[in-house]
Amino acid sequence: MSHLAGIVGCIIAIYLLCRLCPTKAVDFDYAGTLVSILALLVPFLVAWNIYSAIGVEKKVEDIRLRQNGQAQRLERRFEELQSNVNAQIESIQNQFDQMRERAESDKQAYIAQFNAVQGQISVVNNDKDYLQQYSHFQTALNALLKCTYFPSDIRHNIYTLLKMMEDSLENIPEKCEDIDEYCNLYDEERKEFLYEMEEISKSPRKEFSFKHRQKFIEIASKAKKLFDKKYNSAKP
Fold it and tell me: Considering only CA atoms, which of 230, 218, 221, 162 is closest in space to residue 190?
């Protein structure tokens, strides 16, 4: 701004000099001098504009670089926040899954205990419904094998249930004319009975050893024969 004021002042001074001292009173041409000065000012102003434009462009570039740097920092910050949020969500999801597995395990443990107790009560009361006793123990074994969080003595529990199932079937007389007297399972329980039998046979539980599996298949085949006999005898 000061440069521009200086230039304007020079032009006014030259103009006043030309008005007060015409060319007739001096030995040189003031008009030519004025034109020369103006001619010099034009490239100076053009150069000044170019310099100013370059300066503005540089400032714009600096601003753009700062904005890009800030945008990159914000993007990195956002990625870090997103990563932290995802990690927290995953951690909460894992905790939720563990809680759900524990709840399901507790549920299956309750089913196992309840049916084992029902079968034992039937034995203590000398009930003749031996296949019903077997069904209780089989349901308890199926629930036991579904427990993810269970005490380390699970193998002993498996052996105990298999023994109870075997004893229940051995108490049935070899020759019984009226199968309903000893096997009082309802027809609608047939699918559940066979489904549990299949679930136990396919159990991936490592505590359910090959020896346990063989023993169960042997006992289950006897129970299935008795159930089929009862089922077929009930048909018209």
Answer: 230
